[in-house]
């Protein structure tokens, strides 16, 4: 026993140690992760975001360096508060409060004391700041907007929050992500690729050099620039025309589907969402729940299209062969239908009218007649409606259009199911849906969809998907879906009469005073009834002023849809804005200065206050 | 026959020694390696100094092996006394490093006499025990043997270096081998149990448990009419010991020792403060996996996360860079070396060589046991080095002398031709 005790103990110890090592090194894997966390610091080198240009290579968005005075509260020693406050020109009370907040946030992590220095401030501070322990200047990159418009198109960016990080592991705290507009749509292209440096740390958290001499490190790759189809001049002009009005403009180049302008009003200066005042400004914008400046009306607002929709009724009528362009239809101040003499009213105009006249004068009776024939051509109204709907769907209506902006609505084109659900036992007839003929009833379109069908008519039967990307740096082409031609279900031969009718709107119709010298414009006015609930009661508001147009008549360069909320007659606001936009785009200058003055100085703000003030609305006077 | 004297050294022991020193140096190199150094001959660098110590230790080995085998037995008392004097001299000439006055400053180097005192004490103990007049089973001789051990330990404790003093407990194994009653081992074990118990659960609980056990044993044996007095005495002695442990812990120990015990006993879990060493060491070892990160590739090692990594915590570098395989190899080398020494000791014809060999094995075992136990988080942090591995000239030389005197004694037993 005496000989073997120590021997035994040595062996037992060896076995125990082997077991312990197995536990630490093999069995318990938690130590491995911990090691990576505490010995290697991963430092990201953030790339510059790509620039954004307009279709004429005008720079819209670039980057600016920004310098923040930061503090790590724990490292602050022997601070001469008075001298420091004098240096950064900050009242002592504010400084003490900021320091308190910084300490509350974290004594070890950096907090901003004075964000976003001017270049002069940076120049003078950068020489002196090292005298104050715990303070330093940090460089960041911010967006720099060269334009004061297009906020809805460009979209805004923000620092990612935990919610985004949890759902998208490619992002880490402190990174920037596009939230709306092209910043969101083309995030992957604009953001670039961040560089990574692995730095070996010691136990005091000090850097002691590159890990593995930097073989795993990567350099950042700058984000790629993109060129938009937007014409910045036209866009700016459109936003200017909407001063004190609400609504939207969508302008498309028919031959390519390129979006020339995408205006929503009210809008805001994109520069508001950069810099010291960002969160204050953002709150202000997002809390404006009546004007909704962050709401992109061009893409999101679903309006009843009103009379411009009649052009589609005409096209479907021709395709379904239920009307001849020569056939005239009488109007007795409206369209009478049903057994109890129900009437859909019309305004005063000459009668009877053929198709061109019907479009030019916007005769409700004409299109109700055509619409009813379209529906009643089939055995049941269900079949009729669904067939009608198929035609409209081929224009991209009633569905997401597939354009490259991260916001949109389907609009609404009713189907047999819509009415089956509304009427018990599927017991309904074409007359129940008669308002659809004139773009009221159950039909809702976004301005983008309005512009798209106008472009389709301008092209006489086809369209390319609207899109906002014109070119991506280092890419030769844009996605093929935006160069493919989409044909409608309407035979191309049927478009010319409708185009002629839309031309007559300007020569002998509802928009004669909107002619632009030297440009043959085709268009269609619209005065769309709309309703809202006030104190729980369905109340009709002043009509929306609607206008669609394209120009020139042959080889069209621009197709446009304009909505002016509660603007009343289509020609009054939307028509004028269309003509001005068309002249601006095609001629590059405005000769209709009287019209321009009228629009610029006109305000509808009193209209928008009516639901709150209780004043009566002007409806179909 | 030629009139020459040949010596048969135990090459297996020498092989283990060389293997450990070599592996040790590579790990010191890794642990102290920075991009700033200019090669292995830059003597500002720890690994270069250690290489120098290793080279000089070869000279030392040659010298030790060249001496006559009788020298060690004959001069053991003088060596012991010189060693004691060098320890006492520290109180006058000593240099304070890391809070302990355990060093003599000799120009650029420092010498730690307590590292050499182990070998001296082992010689003195072997000499005394192997004396024809000594009978270790007698109390009087036991007392003298304990005195030989206690003297250096008592001088070392107040330096303060309780870690180094603790090593002298290892000598209980050679004494037991030579006939010390088993009760001393038990006593030592119970003392340790009472010690840890007192710290872990407090004097009151320990006293209660002692009384319950004593009563239980008494009741079980009452048919044999045991003396109540004996039981009461033992119980009072135990409780008295617990009380004195409490007193020593609170008044003699420094706060850092208290903290270390508290961590291992699970009373403190502050991984950023006092538990930092052990925690970081476990992380480093744990991150090694099966085969480690490769030599000089250890991220924890490079970041100096483990304090004292070149010295007491050198094993964490092995764990991180060589993984389970490498750590196991080092553990195996130590186990084999110690077993080999025990086998050799049993083989000795002279009692002096046997006691000395046993002492060497016991001392190495204690270092190995306490050091790796500490680094892997099984035992309290006690600042003692891993033999042949840890950085430090005194330590390396101390262990080299300790080991090679035995290699010499072992060889001396064989051939005189």
UniProtKB/TrEMBL annotation, chain B:
A GO term, aspect molecular function: lipid-linked peptidoglycan transporter activity
InterPro entries: FtsW/RodA (IPR001182), RodA/MrdB (IPR011923)
Protein's GO biological process: cell division; regulation of cell shape
Protein name, per record: Rod shape-determining protein RodA
Pfam families in the cross-refs: FTSW_RODA_SPOVE
Subcellular location: Membrane
Keywords: Cell shape, Membrane, Transmembrane, Transmembrane helix
């Amino acid at each position: 026993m005496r000989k073997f005790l120590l021997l035994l103990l040595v062996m037992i110890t060896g076995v125990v140690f082997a077991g312990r090592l197995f536990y630490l090194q093999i069995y318990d894997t938690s130590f491995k992760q911990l090691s990576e966390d505490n010995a290697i610091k991963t430092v990201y080198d953030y790339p510059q975001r790509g620039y954004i240009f307009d279709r004429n290579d005008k720079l819209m968005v670039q980057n600016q360096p920004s310098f923040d005075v930061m503090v790590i509260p724990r490292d602050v020693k022997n601070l001469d508060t008075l001298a420091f406050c004098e240096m950064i020109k900050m009242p002592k009370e504010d400084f003490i409060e900021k320091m308190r907040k910084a300490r509350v946030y974290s004594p070890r992590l950096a907090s901003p004391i004075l964000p976003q220095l001017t270049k002069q401030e940076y120049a003078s501070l950068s020489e002196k700041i090292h005298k104050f322990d715990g303070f330093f200047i940090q460089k960041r990159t911010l967006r720099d907007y060269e334009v004061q418009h297009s906020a809805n198109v460009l979209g805004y960016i923000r620092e990612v929050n935990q919610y985004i990080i949890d759902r998208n592991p490619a992002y880490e705290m402190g990174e920037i992500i596009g939230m709306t507009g092209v910043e969101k749509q083309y995030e992957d292209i604009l953001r670039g690729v961040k560089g990574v440096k692995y730095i070996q740390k010691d136990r005091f958290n000090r850097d002691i050099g590159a890990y593995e001499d930097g073989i795993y490190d990567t350099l950042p790759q700058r984000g790629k620039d993109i060129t938009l189809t937007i014409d910045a001049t036209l866009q700016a002009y459109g936003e200017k025309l909407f001063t004190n009005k609400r609504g939207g403009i969508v302008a498309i180049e028919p031959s390519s589907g390129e979006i020339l302008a995408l205006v929503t009003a009210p809008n805001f200066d994109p520069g508001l969402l950069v810099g010291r005042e960002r969160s204050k400004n953002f709150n202000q914008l997002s809390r404006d729940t009546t004007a909704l400046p962050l709401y992109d009306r061009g893409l999101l607002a679903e309006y009843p299209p009103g009379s411009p929709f009649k052009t589609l009724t005409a096209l479907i009528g021709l395709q379904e062969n239920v009307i001849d362009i020569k056939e005239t239809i009488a109007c007795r101040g409206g369209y009478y239908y049903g057994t109890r003499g129900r009437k859909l009213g019309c305004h005063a105009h000459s009668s009877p009218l053929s198709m061109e006249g019907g479009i030019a004068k916007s005769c409700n009776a004409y299109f109700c007649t055509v619409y009813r024939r379209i529906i009643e051509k089939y055995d049941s109204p269900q079949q009729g409606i669904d067939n009608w709907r198929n035609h409209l769907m081929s224009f991209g209506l009633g569905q997401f259009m597939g354009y490259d902006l991260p916001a949109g609505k389907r609009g609404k084109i009713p189907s047999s199911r819509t009415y089956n659900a509304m009427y018990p036992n599927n017991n309904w007839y074409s007359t129940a849906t008669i308002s659809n003929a004139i773009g009221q009833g159950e039909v809702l379109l976004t301005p983008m969809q309005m512009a798209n069908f106008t472009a389709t008519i301008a092209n006489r039967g086809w369209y390319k998907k609207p899109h906002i990307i014109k070119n991506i740096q280092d890419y030769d082409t844009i996605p093929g879906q935006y160069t493919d031609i989409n044909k409608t279900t309407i035979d191309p031969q049927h478009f010319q009469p409708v185009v002629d009718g839309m031309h007559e709107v300007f020569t002998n119709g509802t928009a004669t005073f909107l002619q632009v010298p030297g440009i043959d414009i085709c268009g269609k006015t619209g005065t769309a009834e709309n309703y809202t609930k006030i104190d729980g009661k369905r109340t009709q508001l002043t009509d929306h002023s609607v206008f669609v147009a394209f120009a020139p008549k042959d080889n069209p360069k621009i197709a446009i849809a304009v909505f002016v909320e509660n603007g009343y007659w289509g020609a009054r606001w939307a028509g004028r804005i269309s003509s001005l936009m068309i002249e601006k785009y095609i001629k590059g200058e405005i000769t209709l200065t009287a019209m321009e003055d009228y629009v610029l100085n006109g305000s509808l703000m009193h209209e928008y206050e009516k639901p709150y003030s209780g004043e009566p609305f002007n409806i179909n006077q | 026959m030629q009139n020459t004297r040949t010596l048969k050294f135990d090459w297996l022991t020498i092989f283990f020694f060389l293997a450990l020193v070599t592996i040790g140096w590579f790990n010191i190199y890794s642990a102290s390696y920075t991009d700033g150094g200019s090669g292995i001959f830059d003597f500002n660098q720890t690994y270069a100094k250690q290489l120098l110590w290793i080279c000089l230790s070869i000279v030392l080995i040659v010298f030790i092996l060249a001496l006559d085998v009788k020298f060690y037995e004959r001069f053991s008392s003088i060596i012991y006394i010189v060693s004691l004097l060098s320890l006492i001299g520290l109180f006058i000439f000593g240099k304070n490093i890391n809070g302990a006055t355990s060093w003599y400053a000799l120009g650029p180097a420092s010498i730690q006499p307590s590292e050499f005192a182990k070998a001296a004490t082992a010689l003195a103990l072997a000499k005394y025990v192997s004396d024809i007049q000594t009978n270790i089973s007698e109390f009087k001789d036991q007392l003298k043997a304990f005195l030989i051990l206690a003297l250096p330990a008592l001088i070392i404790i107040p330096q303060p270096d309780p870690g180094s003093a603790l090593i002298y407990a290892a000598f209980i194994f050679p004494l037991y081998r030579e006939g010390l009653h088993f009760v001393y081992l038990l006593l030592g074990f119970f003392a340790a149990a009472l010690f840890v118990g007192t710290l872990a659960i407090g004097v009151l609980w320990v006293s209660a448990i002692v009384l319950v056990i004593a009563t239980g044993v008494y009741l079980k044996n009452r048919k044999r009419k045991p003396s109540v007095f004996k039981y009461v005495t033992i119980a009072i002695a135990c409780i008295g010991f617990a009380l004195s442990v409490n007193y020593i812990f609170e008044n003699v120990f420094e706060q850092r020792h208290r903290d270390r015990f508290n961590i291992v006993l699970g009373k403190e879990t502050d991984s950023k403060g006092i538990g930092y060493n052990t925690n970081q060491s476990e992380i480093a070892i744990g991150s090694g996996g099966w085969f480690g990160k490769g030599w000089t590739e250890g991220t924890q090692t490079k970041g100096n996360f483990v304090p004292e990594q070149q010295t007491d915590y050198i094993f964490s570098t092995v764990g991180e860079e060589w993984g389970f395989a490498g750590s196991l190899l080092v553990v195996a080398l130590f186990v084999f070396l110690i077993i080999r020494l025990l086998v050799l000791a049993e083989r000795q014809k002279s009692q002096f060589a046997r006691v000395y060999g046993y002492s060497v094995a016991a001392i190495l075992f204690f270092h190995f046991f306490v050091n790796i136990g500490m680094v892997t988080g099984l035992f309290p942090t006690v600042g003692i080095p891993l033999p042949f591995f840890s950085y430090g000239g005194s330590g390396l030389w101390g262990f080299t002398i300790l080991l090679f005197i035995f290699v010499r004694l072992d060889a001396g037993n064989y051939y005189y031709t």
